[in-house]
Design brief:
binds zinc ion; 281 residues; 2 domains; two-stranded antiparallel ribbon; two-stranded antiparallel sheet; 6 strands
Length: 281
Amino acid sequence: MRKVNRLDVQIPESLDGKESKGARETTDALAHFKNKKNKSVEFSFEVYKKKDIKLALEILFEGKCAYCESSYRGTSKLHVEHFRPKAEIKNSTYSKDGRPGYYWLGAVWENLLPSCQNCNQETYQIIYGQPYSILTGKGNCFPLQRKVRGEFKPGVDKRERPLLIDPTVDDPNQYLEFTEDGLVYSVKDKNGNPNKRGEATIQIFGLLREELVIERRSVATALRTRIINIREYERRLHEDPHNAYHEHDLNRELDELVGLIDSSREFYGMIVQLLTKHNFL
Ligand SMILES: [Zn+2]
């Protein structure tokens, strides 16, 4: 996961302005749920599926899942994810879970993120180092950092503090630490305890699912090999400063490393953390 600036792309036309399709759908949703009898009646959200929204999310996140940074191109389709669930809430911190969800945010640009199927849909996954499968995937989960007083109604989201990390709002580096073996941990707080936001994010999105760890590990291993080679060629050049072969080898490895510093690469958040740790950034 890495921080992304939503202002890097224009708001998709379907969601831009009071006359947009999204604004009209929000008005309809507000009218629908104003009637208390409709609280458990499904409302059909359609605008978020529009092509221009998918395209904007794809450009913003460079074809990767907002949460695990896997590329979904060629493997599975993009899921447009509502950070705050639109129709139903599970694991919330409100007194009652269930319908409706944050229906007033079903067609709001700031609430939409691109996700892969594994991060988005609840599925049993093999978790790295665990002997059994665990249910992961966000589904309709939306836990908060603390309870919010008062009624659940439009505008309440302004007072909440989500437990999950939103990469367009939060800096994931403050909460998640990637290691050279492709694992991810919750950054420890000043008391030495893993921070709760990192923990919830890792658990709910399944960021330690085995297949994902294996993918991250192969990227981290390639990076480490480059770094070891660079240090070795630097050492040789230091001992023999005019050796053109060593200089050539060092430059080649540095070029390869620079090629990895590309935000469209899978697991770029991890790449940046590891390069920073080795003083390359
Ligand atoms: Zn994902």
